[in-house]
């Protein structure tokens, strides 16, 4: 469905590029939910914007790599060119629904606008479809809500509207960038449940970006962990949580406050991620890795498949993970 | 008041005037909250956005003026009192380390500001030494005193914010979502730091957060707030392991557990969040509550003592 190969996104002049996404590859199958997890600045949002063709201009550029949607490379196409070429069936939702919605337009009009662009229909059928979409995202009283303004809705409802707009193009791939981070936990659980139900019902694939390992565990089929612009580990969700192989993944799990309430202190990962442009030779995690060895500091780590479908970017992966 | 309480809040009510669509509303953010904080204790206040938890914290440090109720510090009524002498004793850590430090002041000057205003320092050398000691206590090199906020990472800024808080040796720290803006790996470092400081300096702490995971880690007791009222209050383990109020139950159940074999999506019902403009006449939680009965729609449940906890519910 979606295949991203060696995607590299860089800032700065072509003569001295700073890679903020460095050789990211992943595959997304029909109906699958891939979680992309990492801390701020790791390049997960830049990856999603590059895949969508929404990198801010002027700004970061795709320096290398390909984004294949059903086999055709869309890397060099603008979003409107994608729609015209029939590759428009990819949509994105963002963290803060209030800043993505137009505050002075009724939500029915905002959904119908997306329908008109993609289906090239007139107002009446577009509005009818907008109402269907509101039902699809389980808005109560869809007919009434068409005439509501964004400020009259709660945060969770606004995110449902964003999802409805995204679904207007009948996407095969939905990219969701931290869509529940601004929501309360009781509402987050509803929106996550809705997204998963929609993926099942519409056979839609989803790339779900988050910093929250708990959300990943609840939602994703497969997980890629990103650090300093690289994917350092990819595995099925059960394998990743059951037996993490990269030291960074393990560290991220250990420092979650909701794990092991009993322990007195939280385990931490010492230090901080490297700033873009300061990455030298060797493994990007070497300076913080608890199991660092001499070769890590000089040689790039190999990408190895440690078991079927479980890839790790590490010269000395954890093998004592065991059942946790 | 309790024997060893450093802070006692009694029936605190705070409301705000809000204008919406040309109409004026009186929004009651805090609707009769009573709390007491024992010496050396960490009391967590948890609840969703808009529940009034931040307003409770801000009332204590005098950033908002309560309508009624009282706040006393070590037995002395300080409700709306002269803030100056309280400022060094009750101090606040804010959520956003990017917004809470003046970008044009060196870190050292920000850390020393409250001391400067209140005549805390007797000499320049003493001031420098106090800044260095505060920075060292939070794990920053004293050379950070000369740096500016833009040179610091989020975690370092929050450490600087904590240094500013502890410099005048306060008795009470009000921490309002102090780790919410930080990445998980940095969040763990800052939480550990706060636990260490609490022990070393004998601080009492009011820890406000929407994250039960974080609250569960740092606090001894937890108060759960919903629409301006406390609905359940007990020892942390009691609240997390055996929540009784239907709202607390839903809050605990909705935490995304980092365990793919225990999936909850689609399995729990949490209802729509309330509007502060349309406060229900009975129990504020009744419209979302699976246990709501006729009585809940008319009668506001009082917080009463049940077994090992305080609980405000007619039906449990």
Automatic annotation (TrEMBL), chain A:
Gene3D superfamilies: P-loop containing nucleotide triphosphate hydrolases (3.40.50.300). This is Peptide ABC transporter ATP-binding protein. Residues 2-253 form the ABC transporter domain. It comes from Bradyrhizobium manausense. Keywords: ATP-binding, Cell membrane, Membrane, Nucleotide-binding, Transport. NCBIfam families: oligo_HPY. Involved in beta-(1-->2)glucan export. Transmembrane domains (TMD) form a pore in the inner membrane and the ATP-binding domain (NBD) is responsible for energy generation. The lineage of its organism: Bacteria, Pseudomonadati, Pseudomonadota, Alphaproteobacteria, Hyphomicrobiales. InterPro entries: AAA+_ATPase, ABC_Ni/Peptide_Import, ABC_transporter-like_ATP-bd, ABC_transporter-like_CS, Oligopep_ABC_C, P-loop_NTPase. GO terms for molecular function: ATP binding; ATP hydrolysis activity. It is found in: Cell inner membrane.
From TrEMBL, chain B:
Pfam families: ABC_tran, oligo_HPY. Residues 7-252 form the ABC transporter domain. InterPro entries: AAA+_ATPase, ABC_transp_ATP-bind, ABC_transporter-like_ATP-bd, ABC_transporter-like_CS, Oligopep_ABC_C, P-loop_NTPase. It is found in: Cell inner membrane. It comes from Bradyrhizobium manausense. Keywords: ATP-binding, Nucleotide-binding, Transport. One of its GO terms (cellular component) is plasma membrane. GO terms for biological process: peptide transport; transmembrane transport. SUPFAM superfamilies: P-loop containing nucleoside triphosphate hydrolases. It is a peripheral membrane protein. GO terms for molecular function: ATP binding; ATP hydrolysis activity. This is Peptide ABC transporter ATP-binding protein. SMART domains: AAA. It comes from the Bacteria. Involved in beta-(1-->2)glucan export. Transmembrane domains (TMD) form a pore in the inner membrane and the ATP-binding domain (NBD) is responsible for energy generation. Belongs to the ABC transporter superfamily.
């Amino acid at each position: 469905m979606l295949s991203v190969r060696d995607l590299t996104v860089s800032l700065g002049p072509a003569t001295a590029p700073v890679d903020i996404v460095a050789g990211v590859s992943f595959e997304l199958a029909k109906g699958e939910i891939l979680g992309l997890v990492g801390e701020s600045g790791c390049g997960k949002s830049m990856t999603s914007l590059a895949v969508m063709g929404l990198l801010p201009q002027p700004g970061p550029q795709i320096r290398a790599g390909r984004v294949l949607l059903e086999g055709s490379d869309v890397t060099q196409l603008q979003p409107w060119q994608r729609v015209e070429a029939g590759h428009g069936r990819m949509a994105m939702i963002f963290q803060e629904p209030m800043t993505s919605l137009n505050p002075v337009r009724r939500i029915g009009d905002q959904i119908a606008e997306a329908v008109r662009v993609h289906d090239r229909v007139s107002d009446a059928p577009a509005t009818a479809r907008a109402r269907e979409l509101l039902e699809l995202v389980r808005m109560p009283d869809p007919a009434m809500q068409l005439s509501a303004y964004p400020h009259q809705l709660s945060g969770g409802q606004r995110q449902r509207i964003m999802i409805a707009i995204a679904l207007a193009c009948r996407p095969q791939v939905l990219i969701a960038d931290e869509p529940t981070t601004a929501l309360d936990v009781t509402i987050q659980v509803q929106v996550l449940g809705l997204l998963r139900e929609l993926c099942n019902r519409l056979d839609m694939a989803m790339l779900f970006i988050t910093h929250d390992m708990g959300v990943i565990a609840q939602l994703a089929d497969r997980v890629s962990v990103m650090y300093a612009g690289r994917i350092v580990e990819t595995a099925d969700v059960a394998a990743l949580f059951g037996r993490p192989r990269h030291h960074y993944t393990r560290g991220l799990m250990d420092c979650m406050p909701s794990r092991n309430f009993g322990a007195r202190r939280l385990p931490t990962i010492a230090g901080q991620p490297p700033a873009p442009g300061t990455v030298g030779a060797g493994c990007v995690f070497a300076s913080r890795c608890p199991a660092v060895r001499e070769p890590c500091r000089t040689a790039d780590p190999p990408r190895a498949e440690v078991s079927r479908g479980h890839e790790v970017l590490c010269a000395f992966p954890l093998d004592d993970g065991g059942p946790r | 008041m309790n024997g060893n309480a450093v802070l006692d809040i009694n029936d605190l009510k705070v409301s705000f005037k809000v204008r919406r669509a040309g109409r004026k509303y009186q929004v009651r953010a805090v609707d009769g909250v009573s709390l007491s904080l024992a010496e050396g204790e960490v009391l967590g206040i948890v609840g969703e956005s808009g529940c009034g938890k931040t307003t409770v914290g801000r009332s204590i440090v005098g950033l908002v003026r309560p309508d009624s109720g009282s706040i006393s510090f070590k037995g002395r009524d300080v409700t709306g009192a002269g803030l100056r002498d309280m400022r060094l004793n009750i101090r606040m850590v804010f959520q956003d380390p990017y917004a809470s430090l003046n970008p044009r002041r060196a870190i050292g000057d920000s850390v020393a500001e409250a001391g400067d205003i209140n005549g805390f320092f007797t000499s320049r050398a003493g001031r420098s030494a106090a800044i260095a000691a505060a920075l060292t206590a939070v794990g920053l090199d004293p050379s950070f005193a000369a740096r500016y906020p833009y040179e610091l990472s989020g975690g370092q800024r929050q450490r600087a914010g904590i240094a500013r808080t502890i410099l005048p040796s306060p008795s009470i720290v009000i921490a309002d979502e102090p780790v919410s803006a930080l990445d998980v790996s940095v969040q763990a470092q800052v939480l550990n730091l706060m636990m260490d400081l609490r022990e070393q300096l004998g601080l009492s702490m009011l820890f406000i957060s929407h994250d039960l995971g974080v609250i569960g880690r740092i606090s001894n007791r937890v108060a759960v707030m919903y629409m301006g009222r406390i609905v359940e209050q007990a020892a942390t383990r009691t609240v997390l392991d055996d929540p009784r109020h239907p709202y607390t139950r839903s809050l605990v159940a909705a935490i995304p557990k980092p365990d793919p074999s225990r999936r909850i999506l689609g399995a729990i019902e949490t209802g729509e969040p309330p509007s502060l403009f349309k406060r229900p006449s009975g129990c504020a939680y009744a419209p979302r509550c699976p246990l709501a009965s006729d009585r809940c729609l008319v009668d506001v449940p009082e917080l009463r003592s049940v077994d090992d906890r305080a609980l405000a519910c007619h039906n449990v």
